[in-house]
From TrEMBL:
<dbReference type="InterPro" id="IPR032781">
    <property type="entry name" value="ABC_tran_Xtn"/>
</dbReference>
<dbReference type="InterPro" id="IPR017871">
    <property type="entry name" value="ABC_transporter-like_CS"/>
</dbReference>
<dbReference type="GO" id="GO:0005524">
    <property type="term" value="F:ATP binding"/>
</dbReference>
<keyword id="KW-0677">Repeat</keyword>
<comment type="similarity">
    <text>Belongs to the ABC transporter superfamily. ABCF family. YbiT subfamily.</text>
</comment>
<dbReference type="Pfam" id="PF12848">
    <property type="entry name" value="ABC_tran_Xtn"/>
</dbReference>
<keyword id="KW-0175">Coiled coil</keyword>
<dbReference type="GO" id="GO:0016887">
    <property type="term" value="F:ATP hydrolysis activity"/>
</dbReference>
<dbReference type="InterPro" id="IPR027417">
    <property type="entry name" value="P-loop_NTPase"/>
</dbReference>
<keyword id="KW-0067">ATP-binding</keyword>
<protein>
    <recommendedName>
        <fullName>Probable ATP-binding protein YbiT</fullName>
    </recommendedName>
</protein>
<dbReference type="InterPro" id="IPR003593">
    <property type="entry name" value="AAA+_ATPase"/>
</dbReference>
<feature type="domain" description="ABC transporter">
    <location>
        <begin position="2"/>
        <end position="260"/>
    </location>
</feature>
<feature type="domain" description="ABC transporter">
    <location>
        <begin position="328"/>
        <end position="548"/>
    </location>
</feature>
<dbReference type="Pfam" id="PF00005">
    <property type="entry name" value="ABC_tran"/>
</dbReference>
<dbReference type="InterPro" id="IPR051309">
    <property type="entry name" value="ABCF_ATPase"/>
</dbReference>
<keyword id="KW-0547">Nucleotide-binding</keyword>
Length: 644
């Protein structure tokens, strides 16, 4: 479908890619991985046609459609949420306008028997069939389903996009892309602006309803759920694995081990050859052998080890000065903006050494409560900061606040004080900004490198309460793992605002859920919380009137089922599995029929056959309904399996 051939990209004479070739096939689910600065975002921009390579080409059919979601974009604020999402169907509106113009033209004609009149009628008929084929009858329902899946409420549909934060406006752009159903979706960090529930919805959508997908993401759980192929960019080359990310990690370790062994064997061979040359260089009787060995060395293709030495990446927070036993106490804390209440009656205490997560949909008040703690905004109630609490705060937009016109070294030099100024080079080296990298201007750094630089600033003074608001956005897998370990080892108190399930897993022991204008405390890790949430959602669906739960909510214990109940549960699961299997077979049959009709429509005879258009539209609608049914049953099966 898309062929990347001999792709080479150079910046200032330094190669980023070197003669890369690969193919993106129909229905591929590709994770593009590599360390920060390896060129993942650049690769997406080149495929999208927004950036030109130094040499090489990207080839694809003329009628192929590509949808691209960058990390940052300029957003329009002149429409409502619904009107902006409807832009995904501008082709339908254009076709409707064209039909209206032709109908108006028909009304002006009185020569009903003329060839021109008959030709106009035929054009109107063909355009109407094409409009039906485009799905004009049900696009409104598709928009609503997608916006709700990405976290919007129906009451948001008529609000102006200017009322929403940048993260929510990015969701609208994502919704437009998904609704357009392009042949290839290019997504650069799509989960950065989504909450956990929206990420899970997007996982299902991409896995079941999208065409080809190429995505860059540092959310390990997300790419494992979505992708089946992993392309690693390393030292200007690519390595293509036909497996998901977790399997790729194992195969990559094997590959690097083989490379290291081959490198060591070759180095021994080179040393032996050089020793022979040195030993017999001046012996006439060995001159032929010496010349032969010299030519052998010249022709030798040197083995490179792709693994970049990042062993020096060593993130360690300074020892935390001892604080009081209770760094934060919330007593009836609330926050409103005019008539809009964000949250109220927040009552909980964070103890010294706690490591907790703030989770919930975007806009429910996680960052707002953090701003209350930082005293950046006013609030009601009493928020007490404990004795000798020193706060280190990493905001969501921390990396964007850096001055792009100064160097990496100057960024740290301007905030460092005392003896620490003599160790700036060492500190930068520990964060992989050693050598020439420290003299780069901040504006040329990748998103992950900027985040890492902002993190260094946080480490310059000892604190005992770390507040990290989405710290993993733009960080590569390796740096995320290092940051997670550093937080585990930190002997102070930590609040992490994050939607990254893999990052939070094993890190936090308490979860604070923001939603419905309140904050609820859950004991346990992030996956304990998610399991509880699924049970909670089922209770809400059943509309049971449950009394208010206690302030500290524990995971509900499972009810023991009788033998007969267990048998019935297993029978239900088997019926569901059979239904899912039947749906999958039906999808395959429908896709084959649609493909056969599209082949006939591409011919001159077929293009004029209106019955083919009707059949194509009917089959497409039946396919969408079958996929929708399959999605619902698959999610139901997952929920039932988790309850057993």
């Amino acid at each position: 479908m898309i062929s990347i051939e001999g792709l080479t990209v150079e910046f200032g004479g330094n190669p980023l890619f070197n003669d890369i070739t690969y193919v993106i096939n129909k229905k591929d689910r590709i994770a593009l991985v590599g360390k920060n600065g390896a060129g993942k975002s650049t690769m997406l921009k080149i495929i999208a046609g927004l950036q030109q390579p130094t040499s090489g080409a990207v080839n694809f059919p003329k009628d192929l459609t590509i949808g691209y979601l960058p990390q940052q974009m300029q957003l329009s604020d002149s429409r409502t949420v619904m009107a902006e999402a409807e832009q995904a169907f501008s082709h339908i509106f254009e076709m409707e306008a064209r039909i209206d113009r032709m109908n108006a033209e028909l009304l002006e004609h009185t020569d009903y028997e003329s060839e021109e009149y008959q030709e106009l009628i035929e054009r109107v008929s063909n355009a109407t069939e094409q409009l039906h084929l485009m799905g004009s009858a049900n696009y409104q329902a598709e928009i609503e389903r997608t916006l709700i899946g990405l976290g919007f409420l129906r009451s948001d549909f008529d609000r102006s996009t200017s009322e929403f934060s940048g993260g929510w406006r990015m969701r609208i752009e994502l919704a437009k892309l998904l609704l357009q159903r392009p042949d290839v979706l290019l997504l650069d960090e799509p989960t950065n602006h989504l909450d956990i529930e929206s990420i899970q919805w997007l996982e299902t959508f991409l896995a079941t309803r999208a065409n080809a997908v190429v995505l860059v993401s540092h959310d390990r759980a997300f790419i494992d759920a979505v992708t089946t192929r992993t392309i690693e960019i390393s030292l200007g080359r690519i390595y293509d694995y036909k497996v998901n990310y977790s399997r790729y990690v194992q195969l990559r370790a094997d590959r690097l081990e083989q490379q290291r062994r081959a490198f060591e064997n070759q180095q021994k061979q080179i040393q032996d050859t050089e020793a022979f040359i040195e030993r017999f260089r001046y012996k006439a009787t060995k001159s032929v052998q010496v010349q032969s060995r010299i030519k052998q060395l010249d022709k030798l293709e040197r083995v490179e080890v792709d693994e970049v030495d990042n062993s020096r990446l060593n993130l360690k927070f300074p020892p935390a000065p001892r604080s009081g036993d209770y760094p934060l106490i919330f007593d009836n804390v609330g926050k409103s903006y005019g008539d809009h209440m964000v949250f109220a009656h927040v009552d909980f205490t964070i103890k010294r050494g706690d490591k907790v997560a703030f989770v919930g949909k975007n806009g429910e008040g996680k960052s707002t409560l953090v701003k209350c703690i930082m005293n950046e905004i006013d609030y009601t109630g009493n928020l007490k900061i404990g004795h000798n609490v020193k706060i280190g705060y990493f905001a969501q937009n921390q990396a964007q606040l850096l001055n792009g016109e100064i160097t990496v070294f100057d960024t740290i030099d301007r905030v460092a004080v005392g003896d620490i100024r003599t160790k700036i080079r060492d500190i930068l080296g520990a964060f992989m900004f050693g050598g020439e990298a420290s003299d780069k201007k901040v504006k040329v750094l990748s998103g992950g490198e900027k985040t890492r630089l902002a993190m260094i600033r946080l480490l310059l003074e000892p604190v005992n309460l770390l507040i990290l608001d989405e710290p993993t956005n733009h960080l590569d897998m390796r740096t995320k793992d290092v940051l997670k370990q550093a937080i585990k080892d930190f002997d102070g108190t930590v609040i992490v605002v994050s939607h990254d399930r893999e990052f939070l897993d094993g890190l936090v022991t308490k979860v604070y859920e923001f939603g419905n204008k309140r904050v609820r405390e859950h004991l346990g890790g992030i996956y304990d919380f998610l399991q509880w949430k699924k049970m909670d959602s089922l209770q809400e669906l059943e509309k049971e009137k449950v009394a208010e739960k206690p302030h500290v909510e524990r995971i509900p214990s499972e009810n023991k089922l009788s033998y007969e109940e267990q048998k019935e549960q297993q029978r239900q699961l088997k019926r569901l599995e059979r239904s899912i299997s039947d749906c999958e077979k039906k999808v395959e049959e429908l896709e084959l029929k649609i493909k056969q009709i599209e082949v006939r429509l591409s011919s001159v005879e077929g293009a004029s056959d209106s019955s083919l258009y009707e059949e194509h539209g009917r089959l497409k609608k039946e396919l969408d309904e079958t996929i929708e049914k399959w999605t619902e049953m698959t999610m139901e099966l997952e929920e039932k399996n988790k309850q057993i």
